[in-house]
Design brief:
With 126 residues, this protein is mainly beta. The chain has a single domain, classed as Endonuclease/exonuclease/phosphatase (Deoxyribonuclease I, Chain A), CATH 3.60.10.10. Helix content is 10%, strand content 20%. It has two helices and five strands, in the order βαβαβββ. The strands form two sheets. A three-stranded antiparallel beta sheet has the order 1-3-2. The longest helix is centred in the N-terminal third of the chain and has 7 residues. The protein is globular. The two termini are 25 Å apart. The relative contact order is 0.22.
Length: 126
């Protein structure tokens, strides 16, 4: 992503990873690790997140977990089989000041087209 330069970026999806920012919330979870997101948001030699991923990380972009930033106490479950959050929306520092709101798992009938709940974000682009 560094080759894109200093532009706003949204990185989102079913990342099949727990977030290091939710470390305490996932204490009793198993089956998925923290490595995929650790590579992006906590890349340097950090024993709590599993090692040094700096070779795979951006040197330009700093990432914000939209839902966790706006909802620090909300579990934000997106995958009911794990009772956890494995679907995320991250934005870089060139967009983070434009975040207005974010929710997770609150869309009526969200399970109709997927086995995951939704995550959404609203930006002020004025």
């Amino acid at each position: 992503m560094d080759n894109l330069g200093s532009i706003p970026i949204v990185y989102l999806g079913d990342l099949n990873s727990f977030s290091p920012e939710d470390w305490g919330l996932n204490t009793f979870q198993s089956g998925l690790g923290y490595s995929p997101l650790s590579m992006m948001i906590s890349p340097y030699n950090n024993p709590a997140t599993g090692g040094d991923y700096s070779a795979y990380s951006s040197i330009i972009h700093n990432w914000t977990d939209v839902h966790r930033t706006l909802n620090p106490a909300d579990w934000g479950i997106t995958y009911p089989s794990y009772d956890s959050r494995i679907d995320f929306i991250y934005v870089n520092q060139f967009l983070s000041s434009n975040i207005v709101n974010s929710t997770a798992g609150d869309t009526v009938n969200a399970m109709t087209g997927s086995d995951h709940y939704t995550v959404d974000v609203f930006f002020n682009l004025n």
